[in-house]
Each structure stands twice: as structure tokens, then as C-alpha cells.
Amino acid sequence: MLNPLPVVVADIRRSRTGFLAVVGLIAVAVALGVSVSAQERALRTGSARAADAFDLLVGAPGSPTQLVLTSVYLQPAALPLVPGAVLKRLQQESGAVYVAPIAFGDRYRDYPVVGSTAAFVTLGGTRKPAEGRIFASEREVVVGADVRLALGARFAPSHGVVAPKAEPEDKASDHDHHDVEYVVVGRMPRSGTPWDRAIVAPVEAVWEVHGLSNGHPEGAERIGPPWDGPEVAGVPAIVVKPKTVADAYKLRGKYRTEGTTALFPAEVLVDLYSLLGDARDLLAAISVATQALVIAAVLLAVFASLALRRQQLAILRALGASRRYVFAVVWTHVSLMITLGSVLGLVAGWAGAAVLSAVFSARTGIALSATLARQELLMAAAVIAIGMLLAGIPSWSSYRQSVSAGLRS
Amino acid sequence: MTNGLKATNLILAYRMSAGIHTVLNLEELIVPAGSVVGITGPSGSGKTSLLHVLGGLERPQYGSVCWGGDDLCRLTETERDRWRRERVGMIFQDFHLLPGMTALQNVLVPATFDRFVLSGQVKDRARALLTHVGVPGGLQRVETLSRGEMQRVAVARALLFAPSIVLADEPTASLDGASSERVTMLLLDSCREARTTVVVVSHDSAVLRRLDAVHTLVGGRLTTTAQDTVSRC
Questions:
Q1: pTM for this model (two decimals)
Q2: Residue of chain A whose alpha carbon sits nearest to that of B85
Q3: In angstroms, what separates the C-alpha of A14 from chain B's closest C-alpha?
């Protein structure tokens, strides 16, 4: 059993800068690939989780993508309204656990104020508020985990989905100020979705603020379903929680008509993911090409340095080292650089993806957690394996080198 | 003794663009076991090539190199590596220590050629040798040593496994007078004491006059055996 390590360590110590440069180069190439792959998966799982509460969406005909982006991810956009009659019909469906309209249009500061129902906020009673309680009257609201309003705080919403950027917040709110005041009665637990930044009011309140009927018979001031008044206002989207998978498909089929569209957000996400996947594939191809280039560059550098090390290796042979020993010295050196670089790259790639995820979460409210999965580990392992294999080439050339010629060089 | 040399009918030639260049062409070279002989001659006469052939680092096109019973020319490269590891100590003009290592680590390098973990015994031997050559402890990096100290560390490295053969290529050529003297004495005394066969390539008269015999190589041929009457010390 030979031990090339003392010679390898002395070599590394002697050329520390070069060694670190090569390790760093490999690390950057691997980190690039790892972070692209980890980030894409984080984006996929994070966005899919955000859509969990939205089993079936019913809206007016239009862009399915926009319907999902606006209702699931709260991307501001003016959606066409689905008539109140549809809501009335939907709440009669026996296949639905709950039917919740979602009414956008107002905001307070940067927070969207969305009209809906208690069932939607509590996911049909399965989610309890973290603080306080659910709204019980038209002037009460619950806020998401990231909304900076204390329980008991009162505020007046303003019209429009985007806060004007140029003007200071207080002044801007003078213009489209609604003439009502809400009070915060509850805060929902963190969901890791954009809804953590939303204020949810009873849908009746949002209707009335905009001068519409509250959907209930004349004089009735209660909130929540059923809406059986003579006039029920239109809403941009309706969330339906079906009882069973079969109900989900049945309802989706039934409300895919000329006047309405019904979809599973998952379907739309699959389309988006395939776009995302294409982008990921492109970036992955670029990173694989980078890794190949870096390994090629490393091997070239090793070959160049072999010319300088010819004599040293020949001396080892003259002192009695076998050809296998010389092979082991070169191979261990190269493999060490590649392994170290890949492991560092794995860690750096994960850290990079974590930072990207944090930035993305801060911007969108979609909680992303970047993790290293088999895919990234395999990628690093592949770089190490290929590197170790290719390290055999310069090692073999050292193995075959003439001792006598090396001593004279 | 098994460590005497008998080399016969050696021919070493290189194919060059200008034709075949014969580097060595010698009928017979005999070095009795335990003796200390020198090879001298003008530069380019093939001295270093001869030493490489004798050390099994280069295979001649023709002839035989027998150390004791082993004909190097009949061994495979792997067998020659093993033979060299077990029997030969090498010393070079430019010391060829490995930078980045301490003196002790340098002396121990040959011990890593065929084992992973070094025994306490071999480490003790290395320390004793370093004390013997005047670099006690050996914990300083070799880059920080003087040239004389470097060559003495190289001598200690060559002697680690108590070789039966020592081959030295101009061991004093890059040392000043005093260091040269000290290295020569150290090497020759140690080898004579251990009955080691030594072949030294040298121009240094201070070295040559201490040897049992000196052969002169000119144009790859042995011309004379000049000093074979020098008495053994």
C-alpha cells in the first residue's frame, strides 16, 4: 500500500494559490448548476403549495393564467367579472363543501383588501386564526401574518389595487378614500403565500363599499353564504372546495361554458412549469457546458504543470517509487482539486439558491425553501466521477514518462 | 557479496534527427562489492547516462548490468523499481529535495513508496540519520536550509533503507569547499562502514582522490582505469 499524500500535500502547500484558484473555478461552475436546479425546484414546490387552498377556480372567460396569477398569487390585474347568477347557482351545488367569492379592488397601503368569506379564510374551518377571531360583521377584517396592523387597529381602505408610487402613502390615500372604516379582529397564521400580505374583509363589505348590493335580501345585514337576495354582484373569481375528486371534475366540466371558465390552478401551473422547465433546461445546459469547460481547463492546467513537475516525478522514481506511485501522486492531486471544488460548489450553490429564494419570497410572499435533493447531489457526484476518470489521463502520461529524460529536464 | 557490479557490452544510443547518436559503448565495467569507485570524464562523455543505466533508470539497447545475481536488463520496469527501492540510494548534484516538506519528511519520502503508515522504527532511523549528517531534528522546511545542509539531508535520504548500492551524480558540484569536504567525508565514511558499493560521478579531485578506483569515460568509452592503485582507506 503506497501513500502519495505527503508528496501531494507538499505540492499543494508549494502552489497554494494555484490550487485554490482551480478549486474556486470548479466550485463556481458546480455552484451555478446546483443553484439553478435547486432554485427551480424551490420555485415549483413553493408556487404549488401556494395554490393548495384553491382547488377549483371559477371566473369569467379570459386568460386562465391571469385568473390564477391574480387570485392565487394576488398579482394585481383587472379581471372580467363573473355574474352574480353564477355564484348563486354554484352555492346550490351539492358537490361543493364551500363556495367563496373573491373580490379584489381595494387596498390599504401596499396590502390588498380582498372580500371573501370566513370559510375561505379558515379553509372550511380547518385553519384557526393565530390571534383574535374571524370577522363576524361587515366592518371587521382579518389580516395575513405579514400585514403590519395590530388587532383592534382601524383603517380606511382606498380604491385601486396598486398604491401610487410617486406620492407619499398618506397623501395618496386622500384621493380614492372610501368612506368606511374597518377594524382588525384577527390574524391568520403564516401560510407562506402572497395571502400573508392580504387583508380579508367580508365580501359584502367590499360590495357595499363599491355601491353594490350585499347579495342578501333587503334589510338583511348578515355576512356569508347563502347570497339569495334579488341582486348579487359580480366577482372576479370564485373559489370552490369540492367534496371529492369526482365532484371537482364534474364541477369543472359543468362551469366550462360560454359565460364562465373553470379550472384547476394546478393545470395552469403545469403549463407555467413547462416554461420554467425549459428555462431550467437551458440554464442547466449552460452550467453543464461550463462544468465541462472548467474540467477541460483544469486538465490543461494539469498538463501544463506536468511539464514543470516532470523532474520531480522522475526524482521520485529514481528514489525507488513505482510507476503506480507516480500515477497515484498526480491522480490524487487532480482528484482532490475536483472533489474539493465540487463539494464547495454544492454548498455555495445551495447558499446561492437560498439567497435567491429569500429575495424572491420577500418580493412575492411565496415562501421558497431551497434544498439540496438527489438531483444536485448527483450533479456534483457526476462532476467528481468524471473528473476522477479524466484525472487518469495526465496520471497515465506521468506513469509512462521516462525517468532518465525526466531527471535531465 | 551480492552487491558487486559487472556490466558488459553496454550500448546505449539515441535516435536523433541527425542519425543515431551512441552515448555509451563500453565492454566491461567491474566494481567489486563494497568498493567505492568514481567515474570522471569531460562533460557530454556519457557519465550521467552510465549512472542511469547502472541504476536501472534507463535500459541500454544491448548488454547486461549485473548487480550480484540480478541482471537489470532482464527485469521488467516494475521489478527494477522494486530493486531500486530495496537496494539503491541515489544522490544528485542539485539535491532534489521536495520543497514544501521538512527535512525529516524528505528523508521519509522513500518509506511512503510501499506503505501507508510509517512505523516508529523507520522514523527513528530517519531521525538518527539526520543527527548523523548534522541536521538534528529535521523539522525545518528544506527551503530554509543551506546548500551544504540540503545535500546532507539528501545523503540521509539515500541511506534510509541501508542500501547495498549508492549511486551519486556530482554530489559536491554545487557546494563550496568546506561543505563539499564535509559531504564527501560523510558519504564515504558511512558507506565504507556499511560495506556499501558506491559509484560516484564527479569532477571534484577532492572526491576522486578518496576513492578505491576511478574510471574515465570519453565519448561513451572507458579509456583508463586511472587510480585503481589508490590504497583503500
A1: 0.81
A2: A320
A3: 5
Q: What is the 3-state secondary structure (H, E, C) of A323-344?
A: HHHHHHHHHHHHHHHHHHHHHH
Query: A76-111: per-residue pLDDT in tens?
Result: 888 889 998 899 899 898 999 999 999 988 889 889
Segments in A106-214 forming alpha helices (H) = 118-121, 169-175, 203-209
Enumerate residues 6+ apart whose C-beta is below 8 A from A137. Answer: A202, A221, A223
Query: Is A296's pLDDT higher than 60?
Result: yes
For chain A, the average pLDDT equals 88
Confirm whether B233 is domain-assigned. no
B109 → closest Cβ in A311, A319, A322:
A319
- What range defines the domain where residue B187 resides? 5-227
Strand A140-143 versus strand B70-71 pairing type: unpaired
| Interface ipTM > 0.95 | no
Q: What is the DSSP secondary-structure string of A338-398? A: HHHHHHHHHHHHHHHHHHHHHHHHHHH---------HHHHHHHHHHHHHHHHHTHHHHHHH
CB pairs below 8 Å between A and B: how many?
89
B114 is a domain residue:
yes
Binary contact (A311, B92; C-beta < 8 A): no
Residue B200 belongs to a domain: yes
- Is A11–B110 a contact, with Cβ atoms under 8 angstroms apart? no
CATH number at residue B35: 3.40.50.300
pLDDT classification of A188: cutoffs 50, 70, 90 = very high
Q: Which of B47, B51, B107, B114 to mutate against chain A (most A CBs within 10 Å)?
A: B114
**Among chain A residues, CA nearest to B118:** A3
Is residue B232 situated within a structural domain?
A: no
Q: Which three cell numbers stand for residue B194?
A: 556499511
Contacts of B117 in chain A (CB under 8 A): 3
Q: Give pLDDT tens digits for B62-120.
A: 999 999 877 888 899 999 999 999 999 999 988 999 998 999 999 999 999 988 999 99
Given B92, B108, B113, which is nearest A321 (Cβ)? B113
Q: Which residues of A touch B84 (CB under 8 A)?
A: 318-320
For chain B, the domain total comes to 1
